[in-house]
Write a structure and sequence with these properties.
Blueprint lengths: L5 H4 L11 H14 L4 H10 L4 H13 L5 H14 L4 H10 L4 H9 L4 H13 L7 H14 L3 H8 L10
Helix pairs in contact: 2-4, 3-4, 5-7, 6-7, 8-10, 9-10
């Protein structure tokens, strides 16, 4: 007797069953009950569960009409969550673009975000302590850390001091 993992079976649609718009709507609501999604991400999820692309698109449109799915709201909550993790605007923007959000929605969410230079200073101080390093090598190491976190050169300069240029070598 073959045992099927209950985790694998959860949320998977039976391909032999007819994919109705009602079933797609219920599946979308179940997904949205767990966490927020962008429109494109939710559409891909529905399609991966066996729903036709037209049914998935109609479901997305209905959810947007009922204001249960909103890309702007998703982008703002995504920015807020990733700011708490210490991520910068460059990284957050790349993540949101990969999730299928338009540039104007991304820019609006980032503009409503925190003071990015102050956040870069906080991230640097949390990781390396309050004192700005004196050696160029240590500054470069801290700049790489901030760059990995998604901060721009201007934000890195704000965190490491105005005389530091991350774009030039010693």
């Amino acid at each position: 007797m073959e045992r099927v993992s209950s985790r694998a079976a959860v949320g998977k649609k039976d391909p032999s069953a007819e994919a109705t718009p009602e079933e797609a709507y219920k599946a979308a609501l179940a997904l949205l009950a767990r966490r927020d999604f962008s429109s494109l991400e939710l559409k891909k999820r529905l399609e991966s569960r066996g729903f036709d692309a037209d049914v998935a698109s109609a479901t997305i449109a209905e959810l947007q009409r009922r204001r249960l799915l909103n890309d702007s709201r998703f982008a703002e909550s995504y920015v807020a969550a990733h700011v708490r993790r210490g991520h910068g605007p460059v990284r957050i923007a790349a993540d949101l673009k990969a999730l299928g959000l338009p540039a104007e929605t991304i820019n609006a969410a980032l503009d409503s975000g925190p003071d990015w230079p102050a956040l870069a200073r906080q991230a640097r101080a949390r990781r390396f302590g309050p004192r700005v390093p004196a050696t160029w090598a240590e500054r470069a190491r801290q700049a790489r850390f901030l760059q990995y976190r998604g901060f721009s050169s201007d934000h890195i300069r704000a965190a490491l001091g105005p005389d530091f240029d991350p774009d030039e070598s010693p």
